[in-house]
From TrEMBL:
MF terms (GO), sorted A to Z: metal ion binding; peptidase activity
GO biological process: proteolysis
Domain of life: Eukaryota
InterPro entries in the cross-refs: ArgE/DapE_CS, Cyt/Met_Dipeptidase, Peptidase_M20, Peptidase_M20_dimer
Record-annotated Peptidase M20 dimerisation domain positions: 217-398
Keyword set includes Ion transport: no
Family, similarity comment: Belongs to the peptidase M20A family.
Pfam families hit by this protein: M20_dimer, Peptidase_M20
Originating species: Medioppia subpectinata
UniProt cross-references to Gene3D superfamilies, sorted A to Z: 3.30.70.360, Zn peptidases
UniProt-recorded name of the protein: Peptidase M20 dimerisation domain-containing protein
Alphabetic keyword roster: Hydrolase, Metal-binding, Protease
Region forming the signal peptide: none
Amino acid sequence: MTSASEVPPELSPVFAYIDTNADQLVARLAEAVAIKSVSAQADTRPDTIRVMQWFADKLRARGLSVELVDIGTECRPDGQTLPLPPVLLASLAATDPSAKTLLVYGHLDVQPADRADGWRTDPFVLTEVDGRLYGRGATDDKGPVMGWLNAIDAYQRTDTAIPVNLKFVVEGMEETGSDGFDELIVSLKDTFLADVDYVCISDNYWLGTTKPCLTYGLRGIACFGVEVECAHKDLHSGAYGGSVHEAMTDLTALLYRLVDSKGNILIPGVMDDVAVQTAEELAAYETIDFDSDEYRREIGTSRLLYEKKADILAHRDEYRREIGTSRLLYEKKADILAHRWRYPSLFIHGVEGAHSGPGVKTVIPGKVSGKFSIRLVPNQCPDKIAAQVVAYLTAEFAKLDSPNRLSVVNRPPSKPWVADTRNQNFTAAKLAVRSVFGADPDLTREGGSIPVALTFEEVTGKSVLLLPIGGCDDCAHSQNEKIDRKNYISGTKVLAAYIHHLANV
């Protein structure tokens, strides 16, 4: 897949080392996966702390200066206080004092996983099946973090000078909200982060399974809770049913008013500030390697939401006239990508307070709360969105003429992020992909949120790049998470090539 003529001579021994020692690199990932660093669970918090210490030892063995920064404790809803995993700061100086400085971010905590949830293998034993490496954290985010360790090894073991100064910021609470992390990053602005020239994050995935990509945009997210209370306790439905205004009935009515069956957000004003999609942007989507049928199969559905929308893009005719064509290519593909990346969407995530176990429990819940979120896009202000949500739910609740008590909670949001791709950071990454795969990457946005991208951009004032190595079918956060061996090994090469090109662009 790689054109030998596109591999710079300095990288040939580095690539050869990675290929020759592929099994050893996989074994290193297995060692990382075996540490049950589930940050959300109290019983695995010691393991989450241990994985940070484990990685610190790995970096120190390779000559990096390492500090584990204590960021305090976490007070959990049950009243338990737990120590937060330390944040790892590490540095490796290049031999050239004028070299550029690259900051690398990653995280070593993982989502919960249990064989009983539907895993085909033990989630904490890296298991290779048909070239796929299954294990919790294999792709999110232990695989990419190990890729950086592998790249350092490849340079050092081949006596190839690492051409940039490297700095690492690695945390252990990303999967649980990164408690205390942003405050630490802001505090490091004039010290550890003062000389940073570029930032790279490998904590996302390719759009498909065959073509690499670079990611330049993310949606933000605003999370809400809506609580309705009808009684100070749960009530027997036989004794009280028919005489009280049920909290669950009110909550269901409110949730129903948030979004319709076609995905349209019903809250007035939410769509007002969304930037109009330009013909240039739409045309860029149409060149991206994306198979909507493969996307459907990966989800496990026979039909996507957009296919039932009569007005997928209300201004499609405007785009056609601007471009000068009677028909746009790959309309369905562009629609899917646009609705995943650059339009807001609302999701209802669950209900608390009601009976959710097996069997029947004939009670009227005294208090129930629903959880929902809105993915935000550029130009949308989280504070404005929150005010619109609260005002709308309050007005809709008033229409119910209910004596119950309503409370709407707005949880801390994360803002959307879009980067300028016309700079040396993205140029170096494009050249790195070309060096490994012999082809240019797609430039993509993502529908998810990685708040740290915007944090680093605002604190350093420098270009932030998302450089994924895993495929779209890696099942991060789900059962049977994996990374393909070829992605893990080729991804290590891309990271090694990236720092080479970053030094020379």
